[in-house]
Amino acid sequence: MGPVLAPSALLALVLMLLVPGSARGEPGQEEPFPGCQEIKTWDGRLDWTPRALTFALGETLSLTCAEGFRPVPESVRCVEKTNRFGWNVTPVCQAEEGSSVPPPWTSPEPGPPLTTPGGSCSRAEWPPSISAVEPYNKETFAIGEWVWVSCRSEQYAGRRSWIACLKKDGHPEWDTSGLQCVEKPRVSKEDLQASASSIRLRWGCSPPGPCPGWTFQGSCRLTRRPHESCKRHGGRRLSTSTQNQTLHCDGLDPSSSYHVIVYGVHAKEGRQLLYEEDILMQDGVPDAPERESLDLSSRVLRWRPPSPCKGAILGYQVNITGRRAYNTTFLEEEQVHVNASRTEFQKEPWRPGTNYTVTVQALTAAGPGQELRWEMETGIAEPFIPPGARALEVHNISASDGTVFLRLEPLPDLHGPIREYQLFVAPHPEPAPNASACPSLQLRPFDPMDNETYAAAVIPASNLTRPMGFVVGDGQDRHGLFNAPLHEGRNYTVLLRVVSRWNQEETSSCVAYDFTMKDAQPDRGEVPLIVISVQLALVLAALLLLLLDLLVTRTPSIL
After folding, report:
1. 3-state secondary structure of 504
2. How is residue 367 annotated by DSSP?
């Protein structure tokens, strides 16, 4: 019969077989540090000092165990083994006299429920912090059974350990003294705030407040940029901190992806992963488009798209504002959205005599960005004359006085400021000038020695602010221009030239009217006013005589 292993040695053998790398090097893995890693054990009752993640060759650790157990051996040393470094022995915690030693691994294979006379323990009685390492198809365990359990990794940190169903005070009860689970700080995506350039991630502990025994590490690592041409801005510096239970990452690039990770480092349980996720940053406000050209003849604006590093360009917003220095009440505003595929804009029409400010802003999901601005002024055009004013209204031709009454109205300054109204008189039989020849006429005063077209008057626009009448041929001299009386029986053409003048540029428009100097004759069937007056007087006289006759005949005679 071969030698029988002591329970502690048997447990050590089981642990060596269960823990990868505890008895031999793990194939395919290289030790990055010329020394030993921390002790790997599932026995939650085992602890050691000093605490570190790596240990130098020859360094010794002092071992301790939970109450009721003692370490075997009491210390371990980091030594060099075949192709690796490791501890000289695998330590275990051995029960002291009077305590039970955990048996070898209990098979998780399904089997009939145990009905040990001493009673049993139920899985429903486990603390909420633990779960079985391997699945068991039974809910109860007999007194004396041991089960490998671990802390629920989603909420707790701790090493795997044995728990046993023991009888205490005559009742079956789970002994979990060898398992220590520490609740992790809670981190959830609901506590994440991400803008275009920063990330804020908060976590909390239970009870609310500081997290005793924990320190924190976190980082935001760039994993993807929105475009291969995007580079980190030279003046932007990434800063990361974990203060007040919050991860702060500032100076991040918009529309980029960052791998966010948070670790909690516990004094006993080491580093624990609390949060890990890829976060896509919000789009930023785009830069201004780049100016390309302005076609002054057609007023076509062209630009180049801004960098896509702050987000995908969804389109462009064109804002147009028109004002006039000579008319403070004038305001033209327009907003146009242009597709992202277009990089030019032409407004139809551009109003004459207007100062325009045009801005172009690229659009991302964050909204409109910085402005590309144009300032330009359109030239004035020929004054606008409404269709209803194309013919002068001529009234009261007086051949005897040599005058004609004209009705004038102020015209709108749609194409430029109206400066003055010029009246010309062209006597016939010379060829009458038409409106097309009007702009070339000179302000020539009246000359009685010839029959050429002359200027009768110049009316400043400031004097014609509402409808008014003007008498052609009234014989008055106005600023060197004589308004000569017209001759009876002659044919005339009166021309009105409307002049617009701005910034040393002058334009004009004209209307004309032909007439003959003779008194107006009554229409056929029309009764002169004097005849009507005489007839009315005769009727009234007859009525008066009839009334007197009636009064006389009704008065009695006195003899």
Report:
1. coil
2. E
Which of 2.10.70.10, 3.80.10.10, 3.40.1190.10, 3.90.420.10 would CATH assign to domain 7-95? Answer: 2.10.70.10
Structure tokens given for 4: 């029988």
Which position has the token pair 């005489």?
A: 534
Domain ranges of the chain: 7-95, 120-182, 184-280, 290-377, 387-516
User: pLDDT (tens digit, 9 = 90+) per residue, 484-513?
Assistant: 999 888 888 899 999 999 988 999 998 888
Choose the weakest-confidence range: 115-129, 281-295, 412-426, 454-468: 115-129
Show Cβ contacts of residue 490 under 8 Å, excluding neighbours closer than 6 positions. 427, 428, 516, 517
* Residue for token pair 């022995």: 89
The dihedrals phi and psi of 7, each to the nearest 5 degrees, come to -55, -40
Report which of 103, 109, 77 is spatially closest to residue 90, judged by C-alpha positions.
77
| Residues 452-466: b if buried by 16+ CB within 10 A, e if exposed | ebbbbbbbebeebee
* pLDDT, tens only, 418-451: 999 999 999 876 555 666 778 888 999 999 998 8
Distance (Å, rounded) from C-alpha 64 to C-alpha 403? 130
Which residues does residue 62 pair with via DSSP β-bridges, in sequence order?
A: 49, 75
Percent of the chain as helix, strand, coil, to the nearest 5: 10, 45, 45
**Measured distance CA(559)–CA(553) in Å, rounded:** 16
- Residue count of the chain: 559
The two three-digit tokens of residue 535, written as one number: 């007839």
CB burial readout 216-236, b (16+ within 10 A) else e: bebebeeeebbeeebeeeeee
Token output for 512: 């004309």
Contact at 8 Å (CB) between 475 and 486?
Answer: no
Reduced to 3 states (helix: H, G, I; strand: E, B; else coil), residue 50 is: coil
pTM of the predicted model, to two decimals? 0.58
* Contact assessment for residue 423 and residue 455, using Cβ atoms and an 8 Å cutoff: yes
Close Cβ partners of 163 (under 8 Å, ≥ 6 residues apart): 126, 130, 146, 147, 149, 174, 175, 176, 178, 179
Same fold, 290-377 and 387-516: yes
Question: Six-digit token pair at 183?
Answer: 């609740």
- Measured CA to CA, the distance from residue 252 to residue 188 in angstroms comes to 21
Of 244, 174, 192, 238, nearest to 216 by C-alpha is: 244
- Report which DSSP code applies to 17: H
Round to whole Å and give the CA distance between 222 and 52.
30
CB 486 within 8 A of CB 403: yes
Can you identify the CATH homologous superfamily of domain 184-280?
Immunoglobulins (2.60.40.10)
